[in-house]
Every structure is written in structure tokens, then in C-alpha cells.
Amino acid sequence: MLQLPTVCRQMRPVSRVLAPHLTRAYAKDVKFGADAQALMLQGVNLLADAVAVTMGPKGRTSIDLKDKTKYIGAKLFQGVANNTSEEAEDGTTTATILPRCIAKEGFEKISKGANPVEIRRRNCFLGCCWCGLSVNYSRSCSHRNS
């Protein structure tokens, strides 16, 4: 009778060969501080620059970057654009370009010593105010009575 851990250890090399997409791939490098912020902001800038030229009816839907940290920044803001598309069905380009300025200013303030939690609270407060204003204006629209 074989013990389960022994069997699992014997199966791991086989499973990696037969099904490499099923093996776990963990992050190889962890970055903190100004380096991580700069790389994420570069990814955000790349995405915003790529989207800015498509202001209008034609848009791009995917972006691939080699650097993982830049890719994380680009994917973060791509998620913002996708959420905007699901909720409002329009304005995805603007929802990609405007947060670039928010991220840039936020990273600058954090690098100068501002408290990130306080910046987040202020952004949430402004978001709540904006939602309150948009609810008041959306009631007058005939196609949005939900």
C-alpha cells in the first residue's frame, strides 16, 4: 500500500509533462515602492496612449506587454474600462484616459509622503458624490428607469 504523499510526489513530474497548463505558476519577483509604482504607471500610460488614438467609434480591446508589472497596471485600467462598458455601455476610452491622471497624481503624492489610505478615502468620498449626482441626472433619462 502506497501512502498518498508518496504517490503525489511521483505524479508531479508526469503531470507537468502531460499537462503543463495545469501546474501552478507563482509570481517570480515581488516589487515594492517607487520601482513598482513607476512600472505600473508606465503600463497605465501605454494603455492610455494606445486607447487615446481610438477616441471615437473604433476601439481596441486587448493589450499584451512583456513586463509583468507594466502588464498589471494596464490590466487594472482595462478592468475599469470593461466595468464602464458593462454599466454605462459607453465612455470606455474616457474611463481609461482619466484614471491615468488620477494614478499619476496619486503616485506623486505618495512618493512625496502622503498617506495612501487618506488618498483612497478622499477618492471614495468623491466617487460617492459623483454617484449621487449621476443618480439625480439619470432619473430624467427615459431609457434608464431602473
UniProtKB/TrEMBL annotation:
<dbReference type="GO" id="GO:0140662">
    <property type="term" value="F:ATP-dependent protein folding chaperone"/>
</dbReference>
<dbReference type="GO" id="GO:0042026">
    <property type="term" value="P:protein refolding"/>
</dbReference>
<keyword id="KW-0143">Chaperone</keyword>
<comment type="similarity">
    <text>Belongs to the chaperonin (HSP60) family.</text>
</comment>
<protein>
    <recommendedName>
        <fullName>Heat shock protein 60</fullName>
    </recommendedName>
</protein>
<dbReference type="InterPro" id="IPR027413">
    <property type="entry name" value="GROEL-like_equatorial_sf"/>
</dbReference>
<dbReference type="InterPro" id="IPR001844">
    <property type="entry name" value="Cpn60/GroEL"/>
</dbReference>
